[in-house]
């Protein structure tokens, strides 16, 4: 009995221990290190420094460690089967295996690398919450949040300094890649790129962290100093999102303001009748959207007036024009990819080889000509324009079957979450926050490729939050935990 209590204290919920209790702890540590590593890889100066050291291959090292952990888990704890409806995700991965075999003449190494990481996300990241239990998962997410917040917050503050002093430049942040490209930094083309590798990826990472900050700000019983610090951090993060002018991130911000307010007011008005509570909650959500929009415009205008210098290396760096195309060429991109449906077929064109296949078979398409025509004098000449829609990318890479399996997974997730919300008048802040992060990812996937079947910090955070949300929406939760 004492041995069982000791194991429960060390490894968490005993039902999640399995045959090798230390393996779940190893997976927990591995996921934390992986998320922090990929966050660091999104910071351009860090990546440039890593390129000169053995740490440049950290994604390969972590991938190999993840493969070993999956192999051990498969024959011992079998935690990789605990993710809710994970068999659908493994079906998607299997379809990519078929697609990789189909397009093998265009390469094997990149597909194998991407496929390994996708399976790691499904087997180790998404299933983590089911492995370790609710309380341990919450502690892990809280600690991971603070670590990432410190790292990301410092980088955001430097970016705001660059914006105020109009410091903008480009350089090759990753000189070791086979297709090097210039990375925009600081204040460039009237947007805040900051120190980050990708503007949209950075904006969504800030949005994820902003949701975590807001949870701390509204938590009752938390020390005022901690809440004040998180409020300042939230202001820095949301300012970064606004100045990045990432339209998909701004849409997600407006959606978050509405949903977070509706659910929070719904929790606090538990004594009202159901219809009245719904009306009050929706009204509060609409007011929150108006306030959010006003604050967005105010922050944008205020930062323009606060600018105190113009220090830009490129003479055209201040200009950005998208006149005549509200979609930023997305409609033409989507049209090209959809026209390939017959060639994509049941199995798809694989995660990596679709680039080479389309470039080889359809050089006349806009998605190919974009780089060959407009960037012929730069280092970025051998790429195909990405789909700018993650749902479409799933279809391109895994075909009709893979896309169908993934769509079934998303529908089941949505049904589960909606049913849980309807059955529970009050939701925990953990449920609301993980739901917000997942919603951010689903909205972002409409406009960019960074969540599904991708290897970056945004994708890892999304799958981690989705796994936690699936655990939070189990109906085994005591009533006492369903209140704020």
From TrEMBL:
Q: Which InterPro entries match?
A: O-antigen_ligase-rel_domated, WaaL-like
**Cellular component GO terms held in the UniProt record:** membrane
A Pfam family reported for this protein in Swiss-Prot or TrEMBL:
Wzy_C
Specify the superkingdom.
Answer: Bacteria
Regarding the membrane, this protein is recorded as: Multi-pass membrane protein
Q: Where does the chain cross the membrane?
A: 21-43, 55-75, 87-106, 112-132, 144-164, 192-212, 224-243, 249-266, 278-301, 391-415, 427-447
Name its cellular compartments. Answer: Membrane
User: Which positions fall inside the O-antigen ligase-related domain?
Assistant: 233-407
Keywords for the protein's UniProt record, in alphabetical order: Membrane, Transmembrane, Transmembrane helix
Output this protein's name. Answer: O-antigen ligase-related domain-containing protein
Q: Which organism is it from?
A: Vescimonas coprocola
User: Where is the organism placed in the taxonomic lineage, from the top?
Assistant: Bacteria, Bacillati, Bacillota, Clostridia, Eubacteriales
